[in-house]
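Sorry to interrupt, but I need a hand with the structure work. Could you add the entry underneath, on a fresh line?
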Amino acid sequence: MYDNEVAEIWDPVYRGRGRDYAVEAQDVEQLIRQRCPDAASLLDVACGTGEHLRSFGDLFAHVEGVELSEGMLAVGRARTPELALHQGDMRTFDLGRRFDAITCMFSSIGHLRTIGEVDATLVRFVAHLNPGGVVVVEPWWFPETFVDGYVTGDVVPFEGRTIARVSHSSREGDATRMRAHFVVADAEAGLRHFTEDFLVSLFAREQYEAAFLRAGCTVEYVEGGPAGRGLFVGVYK
C-alpha cells in the first residue's frame, strides 16, 4: 500500500482537496497544550511523507515520525532529510524513548483490522509516552456515519503535471472497501494510470474509547477534526 507512485503524488492531491497541514498541526497542538502545556516532544505515527511532521516541527522542540510504507519514507526523506523518520509498524514499533505527545493522523488507524490490533497499537503509543503525555488519533468513519457508495473526484495541477484522482467507497462487512484510480498527465511522460484498492475498518466510537481506557489513558472525542471524522484525545495517567 502507498507505493512509490502514490507516495509521489499523495500530498499534492490532498492539498488540492483542501487539506492544510500547517493549520491542522496548529489545531492539534492546541488540543495537546490544553492537556500538557509544557509538551516539548512529539512523535507522529503513520507520518506518511512527513507533511504534518514538518509543521509540528515549528511548534515543538523535538519531533520524530514512524511510517510503514517505504514509498512514503523515500519521498519524505528526499524532501526533508533533516527529519527523523523511522520505518516501523504502529502495532510493534519500539524507538526506545518517550515523548510528550503522539499523533496518528489521516485515519491511519483504520488500516488495522481488529480491535486487538488497535489495543496493541495504543499499548505501543503508551510505551512511548511520558506520564501525562497526550495521544491524538484521527479515526476513520464510524459504522453509522459512513456513506455507502460514496464517490469523490479531484483534478490538481502540480509542477507542470495534472493529477486526477477518482474514488469509490463501499461497505464490505465491518470495513470500507476503498478503490481509487489515479491518472497523471505529464508533457514528457504522457499519461500514467494506477490504482489503489484496500480495506479501512469501521470501528465504533465505543470501541476506540474502550481501547484507550484499556491502554491506561483517559479519552475524549472531539467533533470536527481535519476531515470531519473527529479526533480522539487521550491522556496517559
In short: The chain is about 30% helix and 35% strand. The chain has two domains: 4-142+203-236, 150-201.
